[in-house]
Design brief:
This protein has three helices and eight strands; from the N terminus they run H-E-E-E-E-E-H-E-E-H-E. It has 165 residues and is of the alpha+beta class. It has an eight-stranded mixed beta sheet, covered by helices on one side.
Length: 165
């Protein structure tokens, strides 16, 4: 491989690295969007539901978003399924060439939780969190138990216990 090819491959990987690492992993959650201006979009953190009065989304440098369960008006959970196009292109260019094509047939799932609530001033607000695959099965039942409300499942999202997240 020539120096130009190596530099080209490194450039492609640098450009595509956000796509390759886009899914939230482990026990993490990420703020995807909503009405909060104090949390930057894409901010990863930990969603803690241990407290019986409020959920806490803790993120870098001691930041925390606290939401009393009694303020939650509605909850919705949904999944977005996508192909691994970015990964296939990056891997194809850098290493395997055409051998990377089977990756195109694999899917990735992202799990989204939307919480609509009222703030301290009584105004309507919302947060959208991406949940790591590993915390979905515990998060939804705990939220339902703590709030006394059902989590609405987006159309096409399997029921918990039957889904294969």
């Amino acid at each position: 491989m020539t120096t130009k090819q190596l530099l080209g491959n490194m450039l492609v990987l640098t450009i595509l690295s956000p796509i390759l690492g886009a899914a939230v992993r482990g026990d993490k959650a990420a703020y995807i969007g909503g009405t909060r201006k104090d949390i930057k979009q894409g901010q990863e953190g930990v969603l803690n539901l241990d407290d019986k009065k409020e959920l806490v989304f803790s993120y870098e440098k001691g930041g925390a978003f606290r939401l009393p369960y009694e303020k939650i008006k509605s909850m919705e959970f949904g999944q977005k399924v996508g192909r691994r196009v970015g990964s296939t292109i990056a891997l194809g260019i850098t290493t395997l060439g055409i051998g990377a094509l089977p990756m195109l047939f694999s899917k990735k799932k992202k799990h989204f939780l939307t919480l609509a609530y009222t703030n301290e001033q009584g105004e309507n607000e919302a947060v959208i969190l991406e949940l790591a695959k590993g915390i979905v099965r515990t998060t939804i039942p705990v939220l339902e138990a703590r709030t006394g409300k059902k989590v609405d499942l987006e159309e096409g999202t399997a029921k918990q216990g039957k889904d294969k997240t």
